[in-house]
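Our working data are protein records whose layout never changes between entries. An example says more than a description, so a record of this kind follows.
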Amino acid sequence: MSNNGAEQQNVLGTPLTPCSMAPITGWYRDGFCRTDEHDQGSHTVCSELTSTFLEYTKSLGNDLSTPRPQFGFPGLRPGDRWCLCAGRWRESLRAGVAPVVVLEATHESALRMNTLNEMSNN
């Protein structure tokens, strides 16, 4: 698998586009939701975050809203785009709080866990 985001494919079968450069996101922290065999969480779903989702994921132990400067993490706010783990996005879908997916920036491997229809209609 190529490490170049533009050479990897999105769920639409076209070249992967950046998810967010501010804040910088992605398994590689390069703005792309690209992945490799070491990304056990499959950070492949580009989503525009909502306060409901941020509260939900925090309640499950993954606090994305609190800044962690020691790790260079600014904390996320509603409206930010972020590469989410495919499984966490699926959990949030089942809970009725899934954020909107940016299909052009969502890696094709997200289709292993979520259907294009689910990601398109949310």
Q: What stands out?
A: The two ends are 29 Å apart (CA to CA). The chain has a mean pLDDT of 93.
